[in-house]
Design a protein that fits this description.
With 525 residues, this protein is α/β, with parallel strands linked by helices. Helix content is 60%, strand content 11%. It contains 17 helices and ten strands. A six-stranded mixed beta sheet has the order 6-7-8-3-9-10, sandwiched between helices. A hairpin with a 2-residue loop joins β9 and β10. The longest helix is centred in the middle third of the chain and has 53 residues, at 159-211. It is elongated, with a radius of gyration of 34 Å. The termini are far apart. The relative contact order is 0.08.
Length: 525
């Protein structure tokens, strides 16, 4: 009875220890990989557009989550599993030393050689699994791309074309996966060969000892049995090494991503300077910039100045360099030559966080998130009280819209802001800008998505946004430039005209005056 009870207690204790070790391993694995996800996501957010423009969102999701997920499963089992089996191996070998020192030495050599061979073979499959993870990332990037464009795909009858690309992606993935799995089995095949070799060696040594009278037939059986017991922990370690191949492939990709450095970074501590308060002056000093190292320059020797509190209207055909000016002001890129100054400071001497807090941007493409109205507004100023948010929404003409929502500021917007009209989304972007209170406002085609019924609300929002601030208004439509003090016209990345708006409008020979004559519905005052 006592023996039975003791057996039950030991069995329960073993199960509890197993469950506890698994819980600890899972917790450590998830904590480590969640921290890694955090670091990867933050790192990617800090990389410049040169990196992101060559990668789809789906690919980045797979790299941030898929690769770390593979590491999570590995971390949760590897350490505890390998340690437990290593302890078992040592215990068996020690027992063999007690049977006969020569047997113990032989089995020690076998275990060391087996582990060394398995470790070396493990590396054969890693490059193949790296290729598989890249193929997975490209496949999920393709899925994200087509799923976000389902309306256009169906409207244009492109479903067969999309499915053709779908199957092509799978055909690229399949042979890579097969090659990686076959290379992964090299560890399994090596272990089978080693186990056969070890069994044969132990039997040969046992026969030698038996016929020399050193051991009995019972000891021979004991040696054989212990040799077979060694097989189980070695097989478990082999399984973990096969998982290590997949985890190592994921880690290689994670390491490459973390090693990627943005071309735009913060200055050294000794050079850091802070932008002054209030409206910021803007200077482009002989700025040349090309997106590709050997490509044509998007801007070529561009020079202009905007005094604090004045508004510059920026005109030009598509591809003339207008949006590039905005990107340089935000320091998404650095000039190839020349310098950009804000508030009298070279922006390369200002911390990126400080710079982007002092420069506000509204574009024609407004990014809204599947979150409450409050959260969509306050990620710039999370401490802003509700009364202030309501006042800002009233300023931009969204007060009635907000009061019509079922939960007010707590109303959750649909993914992508699909529950708002284009005009409402644009005005919400202006509310964000006012909450930010920047010293420089950049409006990049901010009115191009608005219907005529919201034009007046937009104009009021623009006036409010530019009041007391320096502004750069980028437009294809001349109607949006009525608030501009000065005009700058770009053509093929070069300045072709720069001056006061009123003076240029009155000069019949100016480029601006010719533009006014070619299609304006309203003459700017």
């Amino acid at each position: 009875m006592t023996t039975s009870a003791l057996f039950i207690v030991v069995a329960l204790a073993g199960q509890a220890a197993s469950a506890g070790s698994r819980y600890l391993a899972e917790s450590v694995g998830l904590a480590a990989t969640n921290r890694l996800r955090h670091d990867l996501a933050l790192h990617c957010l800090r990389l410049d557009p040169t990196f992101h423009k060559t990668r789809t969102p789906g690919e980045m999701i797979e790299r941030i989550d898929g690769d770390t997920g593979a590491l999570s499963a590995f971390f949760a089992q590897f350490v505890v599993g390998v340690l437990a089996n290593a302890v078992l191996l040592v215990g068996i070998v020690v027992l063999l030393y007690r049977v006969d020192v020569r047997v113990g030495l032989a089995m020690t050599a076998f275990v060391v050689v087996a582990l060394a061979v398995l470790w070396l073979v493990r590396g054969l499959a890693v490059p193949h699994f790296v290729a598989v993870r890249q193929a997975r990332a490209e496949f999920f990037g393709f899925l994200g791309e087509v799923l976000s464009g389902t309306e256009d795909i169906r409207a244009n009858g492109a479903v067969p074309w999309v499915m053709s690309r779908f199957h092509a992606a799978l055909r690229r993935w399949f042979p890579l996966q097969r090659r990686a799995e076959m290379a992964g089995y090299a560890v399994w095949m090596a272990s089978i060969f080693l186990f056969a070799l070890g069994t044969a060696g132990s039997l040969a040594l046992s026969a030698y000892l038996y016929f020399s009278g050193a051991v009995t037939i019972g000891t021979v059986y004991l040696i054989y049995n212990y040799t077979q017991l060694i097989r189980r922990p070695l097989e478990q370690i082999r399984t973990y090494l096969q998982e290590l191949q997949r985890a190592e492939a994921a880690w290689v990709r994670v390491g490459k991503l973390l090693a990627t450095r943005s071309r735009v970074g913060d200055p050294g501590e000794e050079k850091v300077r802070r932008l002054p308060a209030g409206p910021l002056s803007v200077i482009f000093d002989r700025v040349t910039f090309a997106y590709d190292e050997n490509g044509e320059p998007a801007l070529d020797e561009v020079e202009f100045r905007v005094e604090p509190g004045r508004v510059l209207g920026l005109l030009g055909r598509t591809g003339s360099g207008k949006t590039t000016v905005a990107r340089l002001l935000f320091r998404l890129y650095d000039p190839t030559r020349g310098r950009v100054e804000l508030g009298g400071l070279d922006i390369r001497d200002v911390r990126l966080d400080d710079l982007r807090c002092r420069v506000g941007l509204v574009t024609q493409d407004v990014q809204l998130f599947h979150a409450s109205v409050r959260d969509n507004l306050t990620f710039f100023r999370p401490e802003a009280p509700d009364d202030f948010l309501l006042a800002v929404l009233d300023e931009v003409g969204l007060g009635e819209w907000l009061r019509a929502l079922p939960d007010g500021l707590d109303t959750v917007l649909s993914p992508g802001g699909s529950s708002l009209s284009a005009g409402e989304a644009q005005l919400l972007a202006f509310a964000r800008l006012l909450l930010r209170d920047p010293g420089l406002v950049v409006l990049d085609e901010a009115s191009s998505r608005l219907d005529p019924l919201t034009e007046r609300r937009l104009e009021r929002a623009m006036r409010r946004a530019l009041d007391g601030r320096t502004g750069v208004v980028i437009a294809h439509r001349l109607e949006t430039l009525s608030l501009a003090d000065d005009i700058l016209i770009l053509e093929d990345g070069r300045v072709v005209e720069h001056g006061e708006r009123v003076s240029l409008a009155r000069d019949p020979d100016s480029h601006f005056a010719r533009l006014l004559r070619t299609g304006l519905e309203e003459v700017l005052a």
